[in-house]
Amino acid sequence: MQLKELSERTGVSPASIKFYLRESLLPAGRSIHATRAEYSEHHVSRLELIQALRRVVGLNIAEIGSLLRMADGGAPRLDLLAAVQRTVLGLDDVSTEHGDLRTPAGDAVVRFRNWPDVPSDARNALNAQLALMESLGVPVTAELLDAYSQAVDAIAAVNISATTAPEDVDQLIMTAAVGMHLHGQLVLKLLALAHASHAIRRYDKDA
Amino acid sequence: MQLKELSERTGVSPASIKFYLRESLLPAGRSIHATRAEYSEHHVSRLELIQALRRVVGLNIAEIGSLLRMADGGAPRLDLLAAVQRTVLGLDDVSTEHGDLRTPAGDAVVRFRNWPDVPSDARNALNAQLALMESLGVPVTAELLDAYSQAVDAIAAVNISATTAPEDVDQLIMTAAVGMHLHGQLVLKLLALAHASHAIRRYDKDA
DNA sequence: CCTCTAGGATAGGAGCACTATCCAGTGGTG
DNA sequence: CACCACTGGATAGTGCTCCTATCCTAGAGG
Description:
two-stranded antiparallel ribbon; 10 helices; about 70% helix
């Protein structure tokens, strides 16, 4: 199919498709002649992936580009998943500011929960977050951290057992990124509801 | 003090202060003469609040404006807190798209957790999120939701007991917004770490 | 032949959060 | 009393991101 049909099938305007081509989010079509190109089903699914990452997950063009380049470069799937996690959860923003600092509290959590004690982006992000909260004067007690980590441990256990990784790399990014984002948002929303519920209960008791 | 001193004490450029004045995020100073105005300590703390909401929480000007107008309009504290929650957690985005739809799953959570069964923004946001995930084909099993809700229930219980509300309204917004945001981010980061830890463990076992 | 389309280049535009400039009117300082 | 820094008010410009539109020529298909 050619550009116009690709546009019609995905609902993305030709101008935007051209833009994605320029930014190399979308690989160039097979060039038939100087002025004609042929696009495949792969282009359709790639465009759908781009749309999902933009509209649902809310990544920007640069972030999408870096993930897709990794995928196209044949990076190991575990590296890819790590990159997806970094990008989707915005771990970069927090963790790159400081170096590889460790916080006692962060280490305690890992020991307490019996999580493997290996350095990781998530680990750094946690430490950075704890440092940030410290610096802003928001208290994080050991007790609170214990409750939080126990809760997320339970969540992660359920979550991971409910997941199967697809073969196709684009598909892998799609499910991983969309899943991570949506589950994160779900937890945030549940947390808000739980918080409101507890507040109401306490308010009723006080009144 | 006058504008320049206000700028120096808060680290916000005079141009930005003027901008905030124009957008009425910052109340006008007491006008001494046609060309001179006097700012108070309240302006300093208000500016710090604006900075925190912008830089830390990541709200935009319109959102900050709406919260501050509520505060200045003497809205009830509970309404204010609800608005803060809506804004900080982005509950508006999701929940306004659909109406007041209820999902069986959302209701089940509330009953199961014995949370007060009253309509709320958080409730709507949860239902909307569940509907969204449904529509995107991301499965949310009752089992998963149960685990999630149990976990956040525990978190909320700890969280709320560790909080005391300040008297000053600006201060209330500051602690509520910053606290909500940072705790939400903390949970997300912990979740990422827990997820990674479980993945590593499963990977090791498989290998 | 005529119309349509591709690709390439470049420019335009919208939204956001500032930032800069210009203005004329003062306050206080020397 | 002259002068300069500073004021509020107005308006325009900047940098960023993500597109969208226009213009061009070469070539395909009816």
